[in-house]
Design brief:
By secondary structure, the chain is α+β, with helices and mostly antiparallel strands. The chain folds into two domains: 117 residues, Homeodomain-like (Arc Repressor Mutant, subunit A); 150 residues, Alpha-Beta Barrel (Multidrug-efflux Transporter 1 Regulator Bmrr, Chain A), CATH 3.20.80.10. Helix content is 41%, strand content 18%. The chain contains ten helices and eight strands. The protein has an eight-stranded antiparallel beta sheet with strand order 1-6-8-7-3-4-2-5, with helices on one face. It is elongated, with a radius of gyration of 22 Å. The two termini are 13 Å apart. It comes from Cellvibrio mixtus. Keywords: DNA-binding, Transcription, Transcription regulation. It holds the Pfam family HTH_18. One of its GO terms (molecular function) is sequence-specific DNA binding. This is AraC family transcriptional regulator.
């Protein structure tokens, strides 16, 4: 185990923040930020949120707005439209909306009379707080698992529509019966920060034989084996991110472990039609190197 692992993670997130500050005119993609942090792209965004309390996209926008506020206050010769374009906005109207939403002043009002005390409050970043949340983490060897898979690509709110199609396939074929098979969900990014059309979620159920060609779009796939950390989440699926962010902030930095380049995934122990929402059980798997 490395010395002071928590500080090691702090430095990696700080390195990303510094890179953003020094490259505001560049195309700051999630893939590039993941490389700078030396994290898998499947996990970087959640680690960043756990440490800063905001998404990397919001951090980049806020940092660009910070520079824009300096331009407005101290470079009176610069036109607002030029400052807006430099900040990455396509129009001064979009810039004005984002600026006022962030600083409670329009760009022109800020230029005339900046409210610096309120401005400073926007840059006091606070990590997400989880209180004294208990965390029982088991490190296990996950065996390679053959699954029937249906890919969802689109708005997170429509995942249940895809799940309904998968259930219909199960009923029509008799394969991967819900009572005797395991059901998994694999999100490839955080739905809260991913553009709807780019959000992918795989609905999976374990199988013994390959899936035959079908009209449902279900196909044979494999969840790869390897070392995983597992935590059990109790309660609503709407609150899964509470457990996920707590893991990234509290357990992972102190464990000496590194995340593998594969998404975290969920094993649904029971379902909402079987138990009350408060009694839902979901095992969350974090692939480790």
């Amino acid at each position: 185990m490395r010395n002071n692992p928590t500080n090691h993670y702090d430095k990696r997130i700080a390195r990303v923040c510094e890179y953003i500050n020094q490259n505001l005119n560049e195309d700051l993609t999630l893939e590039r930020m993941s490389d700078v942090a030396a994290f898998s792209k499947y996990h970087f965004h959640r680690v960043f949120v756990a440490y800063t309390g905001m998404s990397v996209t919001r951090f980049i926008q806020l940092t660009r707005l910070k520079r824009a506020s300096y331009r407005l206050a101290f470079e009176s010769e610069k036109r607002i439209i030029d400052i807006a374009l430099e900040a990455g906005f396509e129009s001064p109207e979009a810039f004005a909306r984002a600026f006022k939403r962030t600083f409670d002043q329009s760009p022109s009002d800020f230029r005339a009379e900046p409210q610096w005390p309120e401005w400073h409050l926007r840059f006091q970043f606070q990590p997400k707080s989880y209180g004294a949340m208990p965390m029982n983490v088991n490190v296990i060897q996950f065996e390679p698992t053959k699954v029937a898979l249906l890919e969802h690509l689109g708005a997170p709110e429509k995942v249940l529509e895809t799940a309904a199609i998968f259930i219909a396939w199960r009923k029509a074929t008799g394969l991967s019966p819900v009572k005797t098979s395991k059901t998994f969900g694999i999100p490839y990014s955080d739905p809260k920060i991913t553009e709807p059309e780019k959000f992918r979620w795989d609905v999976c159920g374990t199988i013994d034989t390959d899936v035959q060609e079908n009209d449902y779009g279900v196909k044979t796939s494999l969840i790869p084996g390897g070392k995983c950390a597992v935590i059990r989440h109790t309660g609503s699926h709407d609150n899964l991110d509470t457990s996920i962010y707590a893991f990234y902030r509290e357990w992972l930095p102190n464990s000496g472990e590194e995340i593998r380049d594969y998404p975290c995934f969920f094993h649904y122990i029971n379902f909402i039609h079987e138990v009350d929402e408060c009694d839902l059980l979901t095992d969350i798997y974090f692939p480790l190197k």
